């Protein structure tokens, strides 16, 4: 399996998409740092004092700023995960590059798992760097004004959820890649990801307005594709406000009013494992 | 150890009941160069891809190197050059070979030596550090052959191995195949370039419209239709009127000075003395008799036409 993992690393690094994404991610982090820096400067001038009312405003702005950064960071990570993994098997079948690999004494399940571990570890590392970059900017550039107060365990928990999101995407991408073409798989996965995120927002709005229909739509979309629940759990772990009655006020649209249940988190893990298991099964039976 | 590296029984791979290969029963002897002949789309590549586990058979069974096809064990000592050779163009030739060497389970030290050897063998020495995207088609085919030879395979499938090569490259590949044969390796050669196959193959199988028409030692197959070229006087009367019934076909092939050359097809190989006796008795002046060595193309066309004839008869009977 190791040669397949290695060649997956080499492919990602060699292909332009990864380099461009890295450059654009750095540009995004730079922009986020500049925005945070200017916001800190403005806030220092505007707020200054430390009354309880102003503390609330600071908390709102700080979580908003970091939540926004994490949200766009997760979108970039997800798009990279989709674009780099949905063609991992399909495009090789289409081009017949896969023929010489599979003609070796290599079981097909090892090929799928090699691709999965290669992609998941690279994307997991990318997500971790993105998360660390955003949080680092928030803490260092945000100083006392915009820095969200977090402890090590919160960071670790949030990072774990943030990193899990592209891994789940890779699991589903492997399934689509082993059963359909690159273009079809890409379209399906982008739509599923879109449903998940829009559903996530609808669920939060449903919780704010106590509208069960909206909440149910969100839950159904999460069941369909549970990527959003991982992002929500990441922000929830970081801002630790699930029990705070003012949580939505302090976190805005990027925060979490309706936290994912433990069952949903187990479902998400189960979803990923089943998708990966199915991809192996489908690929083993498939003609290439 | 079996005498055959490949044995198939009614092996079938069809796509929705169409095309592919159908009911292929054949044996490929160990150490032979087996030429699998057929027109484009006859099912040659489908058969090879089924043997290698890339396609799942719809019926029948097969063993390769003593193991059932589709199993990992069956592919342990097998090399493969696909017809549609495409390699990751972002790798260098050397990196491609290194990855394949790893998949073959070679250690770093082993792979270094083996790669150096195969790169030289296919005439790519000095170019292996370049990216594949900069290779010509012929160079890609050469690096593909190098890949196929990496694991020191017992059985090598070469699917149209000279399709992108120039005449010198083709000659080099033919020489390489002969060298591999001398080392005791079995080569399964897929091609529709019959003249190329003729010089290297000792066994052939002919596939037509997905079905195996015939297979065996090709020199034996070539004697199925014995032919002689007979040069006689032009004024030998009407030669065709005195031909015995065992001459199944005759054709005037050349007229020079006062002599005609006829190509005679006999029903059996041992009829030549009887034919000559009869012609001489009939007053035909014979100047030259040359036993016609049939080309692979002749053999191929004979069997394909025969199969087509049987097919037409069967279709006609079904119609009636």
Helix-strand pattern of chain B, N to C? Answer: EEEHEEEHHHEHEHEEHEEEHEH
Q: Could you state the CATH homologous superfamily of the largest domain in chain B?
A: P-loop containing nucleotide triphosphate hydrolases
Query: Multimeric state of these chains?
Result: heterodimer
Tell me the span between the first and last alpha carbons of chain B.
50 Å
Largest interface: A-B, 23 and 31 residues
Number of structural domains of chain A = 1
Total tally of structural domains of chain B: 2
The end-to-end distance of chain A, rounded to whole angstroms, is 19 Å
Major sheet attributes of chain B = 6 strands, mixed
Global Rg of chain A = 20 Å
Q: For the report, how would you describe the main beta sheet of chain A?
A: none
Question: Which residue ranges of chain A are poorly predicted, with pLDDT under 50 across at least 5 consecutive positions?
Answer: none
Low-confidence stretches of chain B: none
Protein name (chain A): ABC transporter permease
Keywords (chain A): Membrane, Transmembrane, Transmembrane helix
GO cellular component, one term (chain A): plasma membrane
GO molecular function, one term (chain A): ABC-type transporter activity
